[in-house]
Amino acid sequence: MFQHPGDSNISKFQVSEFILMGFPGIHTWQHWLSLPLALLYLLALTANILILIIINQEATLHQPMYFFLGVLAVVDMGLATTIMPKILAILWFSAKAISLPECFAQMYVIHCFVAMESGIFVCMAIDRYVAICKPLRYPAIVTDSFVVKATVFMALRNSLATIPVPVLAAQRHYCSQNQIEHCLCSNLGVTSLSCDDRTINSIYQLLLAWTLMGSDLALIFLSYALILHSVLKLNSAEAASKALSTCTSHLILILFFYTVIVVISITHNAAMTLPLVPVLLNVLHNVIPPALNPMVYALKNRELRQGLYKVLKMDKEN
């Protein structure tokens, strides 16, 4: 019935900062990962800035599909910049300490940008659906007003829906450990250090995943199922091939984005035996798509390639 004085002091103690330990199990040589990660970060920034310049300079690219691609480029740069400077600081300078407000802010921005990327994929899927299944009505449906409203809606949805994640994490009491076996402030990684019940955090994380990511994935699947159904009804094989080719790059990026999220969720349950796997996948998921997205679109899209040639002063017709 009586609490020991020492226990009382511990329960009242609140840590003032977290220590991001980096990649679990490879602390002695994790600095070697800094070079490929730094190169990926520079590639992501350079490629996405190029995409924005090309879209801005080429009048033929002032279309809804490329506007969404431009928004995706901004989101990708924001996501990579949210985590990579701190990760490189950990690997290069052992700057592992991060204050609680900074940690919770990073947690919020990561969730917001990842959800925003998912939302933009939905907008792009709807755009392709209307363009292929209802081509005659495309100019009337996908207007500049529609594009702006869809983007603003996604921004508001994701920025508001993810607010409870850091708020709930900040309400937990961190009284003993402050070392996080991670390179960034993930929700589950941080709240696992709390001394009180974190059930509400886990429930909201699961609810957020199902409502945001789940609904986005369902809409994307529905859009492409309708596109496939429409394409299969075309009499011309050439027309069908041309219609599907416009969706290939989008599908590649969507499959990579959601597949890694599913794999991270599965491997998180095995974190006790293989703690490095979910951490490494989490970091790569936040830096590879920003580097991969613009390259896949540039390789698969003739208009973007031509714009790239012009920006680089390499005039080519094909």
UniProtKB/TrEMBL annotation:
Pfam families: 7tm_4
Membrane topology: Multi-pass membrane protein
Keyword annotations from UniProtKB, A to Z: G-protein coupled receptor, Membrane, Olfaction, Receptor, Sensory transduction, Transducer, Transmembrane, Transmembrane helix
GO cellular component: plasma membrane
GO biological process, one term: cellular response to lipid
Subcellular location as annotated: Membrane
Function: Putative odorant or sperm cell receptor.
Name of the protein in its database record: Olfactory receptor 56B2
Phylogenetic placement of the source organism: Eukaryota, Metazoa, Chordata, Craniata, Vertebrata
